[in-house]
Design brief:
Strand order of the largest sheet: 3-2-1-4-5-7-6
Number of helices: 8
Bound molecules: S-adenosyl-L-homocysteine, 3,4-dihydroxybenzoic acid, magnesium ion
Helix content: 40-55%
Largest sheet: 7 strands, mixed
Strand content: 15-25%
Radius of gyration: 17 Å
Oligomer: single chain
Order of helices and strands: HHHEHEHEHEHEHEE
Shape: globular
Length: 223
């Protein structure tokens, strides 16, 4: 097999981005604000954001749930896919990240209600379940990778037949292939992939995501 050429991967990503996710003032301002606040640049790529947006559009999502807000970049892509009157709930443990996100999300998607809920995502998910929250049409998991399996079990309790559950960073440039990987994030993603593959309530696949390295997006559909 040919060795992976990082420069070529970046050129491919840029090619797709130029065609399908051109510069956008709201998204660009979001990244500028996050960088100015010193947030780590670990948001989804523009191309992956466009993919999230398209999936949300394709399933006609009205209610979306995100686990891991950071500065609200992926939140913005998802919110823009929702109709007027739609609702997006995004969960973030870090008050600073949540504050930056709230600032950037204020005018990100007019007519869509966006709630940034601060706290440990598992606690917030349990509170939503206990509070009888209406199920979500689409879920995007992108917080601490070691706990993806726990988040999956919880979000399944906030899902209906047809809900789409997405999870970021499930390939980690191939680190997930190694059952003995010393990388806890890769182990978490590997366990998540095994869990969605084995869950009889789900039909799933993992798509490679091209960036400077190859990562992946898990897609699951609730029966
Ligand atoms: N979805 C964002 C990136 C999220 S980065 C985007 O693509 O734009 C992961 C985020 O998850 C970080 O902001 C981190 O603070 C948050 N996080 C980590 N552990 C968490 C937890 N236990 N509960 C909620 N959020 C958590
Ligand atoms: C990291 C987290 C992410 O969600 C991501 O997309 C890339 C990197 C990280 O924690 O390093
Ligand atoms: Mg991610």
């Amino acid at each position: 097999m040919k060795p992976v050429d990082a420069a070529l991967l970046e050129r491919i990503d840029r090619y797709v981005e130029t065609l399908f996710a051109p510069p956008d003032p709201v998204l660009d301002a979001n990244l500028t604000a996050a960088a100015a606040a010193g947030l780590p640049p670990i948001h989804v790529s523009a191309a992956e954001g466009k993919l999230l947006y398209l999936i949300a559009r394709m399933v006609g999502a009205r209610r979306a749930l995100e686990v891991g807000t950071l500065g609200g970049y992926s939140t913005t892509w998802l919110a823009r896919a929702l109709p007027v009157g739609g609702r997006l709930v995004t969960l973030e443990i870090d008050e600073r990240h949540a504050a930056v996100a709230r600032g950037s999300l204020r005018d990100a998607a007019p007519g869509v209600e966006i709630d940034v809920l601060v706290g440990d995502a598992a606690d917030t998910l349990r509170a939503l379940i206990d509070g009888g929250a209406e199920p979500f049409d689409l879920v995007f998991i992108d917080a601490d990778k070691t706990r993806y399996g726990e988040y999956l079990e919880l979000v399944l309790r906030l899902a209906h037949a047809g809900t789409v559950i997405l999870a970021d960073n499930v390939i980690r440039h191939g680190l997930v292939l190694d059952p003995a990987s010393g990388d806890p994030a890769a182990q978490g993603a590997r366990a998540y992939n095994a869990a969605i593959a084995a869950n009889p309530r789900l039909e799933s696949i993992v798509l490679p995501i091209v960036r400077d390295q190859i990562d992946g997006l898990a897609l699951s559909w609730v029966r």
